[in-house]
Design goal:
Elements (H helix, E strand, L loop, with lengths): L2 H13 L2 H13 L6 E9 L9 E8 L3 E3 L2 E3 L23 E2 L4 E10 L13 E5 L3 E10 L2 E10 L3 E2 L4 H15 L1
Antiparallel strand pairs: 1-2, 3-4, 5-10, 6-9, 7-8, 8-9
């Protein structure tokens, strides 16, 4: 993590004991993991160095897929399995939007397939943008028994006037569809 996300966890660690930080980090991870997967936070790397990305060491266990006949299904976007998309359910807005800070999310997941397994399909690629505001790119590749899925989302604004809400709403509808 970097920027405001890292700052949040560094400040929380200054104000709380390690067990409270662990508890809150574990709670925050639940929203990102697919069904059947659990994560246990262990510790942070570079907690005391704001010039370096903050890294959370997490032990992940569980079953990430499901079996149907001869097929095994894995989540296409591992960290978006339970994603909620703001602004999708609200068509109009009359007040300004405050998202606190600009944001970049980059997920790079590699699935290593057991010998004899082949890939029938991968997540559909996406390249969405709302010029000068936000973008989403999703891509996947299959090579030598691995499947790599990359998702990159960038939002370069923190606040937005209500007059721009229609464009924001439209982008998030497209984003929600791409994430599914």
């Amino acid at each position: 993590m970097s920027g405001p996300d890292a700052l949040y966890w560094r400040q929380l660690a200054l104000e709380n004991d390690p067990e409270e930080v662990k508890k809150q980090f574990n709670e925050s991870m639940r929203a990102y993991l697919p069904d059947g997967v659990t994560a246990g936070f262990d510790h942070f790397l570079a907690l005391d160095d704001a010039n370096v990305n903050l890294i959370g060491i997490v032990q992940v266990t569980g079953n990430i897929g499901s079996t149907t006949g001869k097929h095994f299904f894995l989540p296409g976007l591992f960290f978006e399995s339970h994603a909620t998309h703001p602004f999708v359910g609200q068509e109009m807005r009359h007040t300004p939007i405050d998202l606190h800070y600009a944001k970049i999310e980059q997920d790079h997941v590699t699935y290593h397939l057991p010998p004899g397994f082949t890939v029938q399909s991968t997540p559909k690629g996406a390249d969405l943008s709302w010029p000068a505001h936000t973008s989403l790119k999703i891509g996947s590749t299959v090579s030598n028994g691995t499947v790599e899925v990359v998702r990159s989302f960038a939002r370069n604004f923190a606040t937005l006037d209500a007059v721009d809400y229609s464009d924001l709403h439209d982008f998030y509808l497209r984003l929600a569809t791409a994430d599914q």
